[in-house]
Amino acid sequence: MRGTPRLRLLRRGSQSLGLLLGIFGITGIGMTHLIFPGLHCYACPLAVTVCPIGLMQNLVISGTVPFYWMGVVALYGLVLGRGFCGWFCPFGTLNDLLSFRKARFLHALSPLKFAVLVGTVVAAWRFGDTMFCKLCPAGGLEASLPYFGLGVAGLNTPFLVHMGTLAATLLGMILISRFWCRYLCPMGALLSLFNRVSLFGLRLKADRCSGCGVCARACPMGITPHLEINSTNCIKCGECVTACEASALSIGFSLPGKEGRVPLRAPRPLARLDRVLARK
Fold it and tell me: Which of 125, 151, 158, 276 gives the lowest tally of CB atoms within 10 Å of its CB?
């Protein structure tokens, strides 16, 4: 798919589908055994799917070998990778809505999301409880607030903790676009492990790329797409594709080993100048 407004409309449509699936309980359908491909609280009054991070913790607590969980997460990862973050996840969509300020990606903080993932597993094993769920900002938004509005939840310590983490996360989203997705999301950390080998991904035509940096300025994750294409920090949203005037970038389904699925090496200044002059 090329960089056209149609691509952006298609992504908005898929994000809307993710939101609808997240509250599909409004149709009267009860909880299912389907694992949601993103961060979505299964305690939401209208949820019909299971949160992958919540299920992971419960499996650790019960000592169950997570064959089903591993299979489903691997399937999601191999098909879209972090494309679910950019195209489907309701909490990712909220990140987009609050992305008023783009900022450079701080690679030094990138391992934080993996630390959160490992800490979630260790805390579930150590305390025998879903500790991440007690702090999860998605849970605060999708469960604590609705239940408080329904009069089920009270103004107690767990509710205030959820509101505190939610407020801090929302502030982070406003100050740094896709703040939660960049640095803290454990589901993003899981899916990122498959980013380079997933069927869905970005492709780059190196001969068309001048290294102008337009794609980097458009990227909500603050990365440099042509140098970090399909990296663990890329959510495959396609904003760089839409921004690229040279049509050097495209997005869609292809085999991981196909040409263009790997990043360019950072060019030397003279080599970059030669490429710009050649294009002119």
Answer: 151
